[in-house]
Amino acid sequence: MASYRQVVAVERALAVLRAVSLRKLATVGEIHEDTGIDKATVVRFLETLIGEGYVHRIEDGPRYEVTRKVTQLSAGYDRHRELARVGGIVMEKYRTVITWPMTFAAFDGDAMVIVEAIRKPRGLVVNRVPGYRFPMLVTSSGLAYLAAVPDAERDAILDHLATHPGPGGWNQRAHDREEVLRVLDEVRARGYAISDEEYYQEQHEGVLWGASVPIRGRSEIHGVFGIMLLSHVLKRGEGLADYLPVMTRITEDVAGMMDGAPAPLSAPDGE
User: Fold this and answer.
1) N or C, where is the chain less crowded by C-beta within 10 Å?
2) Per-residue model confidence (pLDDT) at position 68
3) d(CA 209, CA 236)
4) E strands along 86-220, which residues?
5) Rounded to an integer, what distance in angstroms lies between the CA atom of residue 101 and that of residue 208?
6) pTM score of the predicted model
7) Distance separating alpha carbons of residues 124 and 153, to the nearest angstrom
8) Comparing 61 with 170, which gets the higher pLDDT?
9) How many CB atoms are closer than 10 A to CB 10?
């Protein structure tokens, strides 16, 4: 908890900067929709951010985009590296509990990227290593992340995906917003996501599938934790009752550490 009352003007300026960053190219009207800040105030914040070098105005529209200077704001913190560090600590404590391959993944602009993984000798030949990127709308990691983030952030991501087909063209599904939201509502309701059957049928002939749970921090979604399973051992979407309590505990441990809590000493008894 902050020691002093928060400065509202700073909060709102950061909200404007965040909205521009998420949309890649944003109009005043879009920023207003994302933040709830009136348009005249949005313009004043934008002019200030332009003067400080964090935002650039494109006269066509006009529209606004962030500049490279925003990277200075995160120079001392690498979110992916920190999630990998924390995830590695926690996974090590649960590796005898979950015998399937485990991964931690983070959002990376237009895809999910694996930041840490433990692979298990259960006949899986698919190599999922840190740095591997995969689409948002058809993988359990992407669906779990999208279902967990605030609606404004989700919508900004979907808008971006709709204009960037990506490898395999899977991002085209973002054009059917009604269907995407229906799927995400289901994921949100049950608290976890499973991979799209068509995607894994095409990519891996349906021999495996994934399940993922979001890592919910106090103020943000840090990423997702997932496991990969063989279809001939557990059919897609079945048999998760034995794993979900442990998966949830893992995400809680990671979220706590990302938010500043100490590392858990060991996996709880009985898990």
Assistant:
1) N
2) 87
3) 6
4) 102-107, 112-118, 133-134, 193-194, 208-216
5) 11
6) 0.68
7) 34
8) 170
9) 9
Domains in the chain and their CATH numbers? Answer: 8-74 (1.10.10.10), 79-258 (3.30.450.40)
Q: What angle do CA 137, 139, 144 make, to 5 degrees?
A: 80
**3-class DSSP state of 224:** strand
Q: Give whole-number Cα distances, 224 to 108, 136, 192, in Å.
A: 12, 12, 10
Q: Report whether 99 contacts 122 (CB < 8 A).
A: yes
The two three-digit tokens of residue 19, written as one number: 């909205």
pLDDT, position 76: 60
The span from the CA of 30 to the CA of 181, in Å, is 20
- In DSSP notation, 127-163 reads ---TT-EE-SSSSHHHHHHHHHS-HHHHHHHHHHHHT
Mean pLDDT, range 160-165, rounded to an integer: 87
Give the max Cα distance, the chain. 61
Convert the pLDDT of each residue in 108-128 to its tens digit. Answer: 888 999 998 876 555 454 556
CA dihedral 44, 12, 21, 79 (to 10 degrees): 150
The alpha carbon torsion through 130, 133, 136, 140 (nearest 10 deg) reads -40
Alpha-carbon distances of 206 from 50, 125, 203, 223, rounded to whole Å: 50, 13, 8, 25
Mean pLDDT of all residues in 54-61: 89
Judged against a pLDDT cut of 60, whether residue 269 lies above it is answered with no
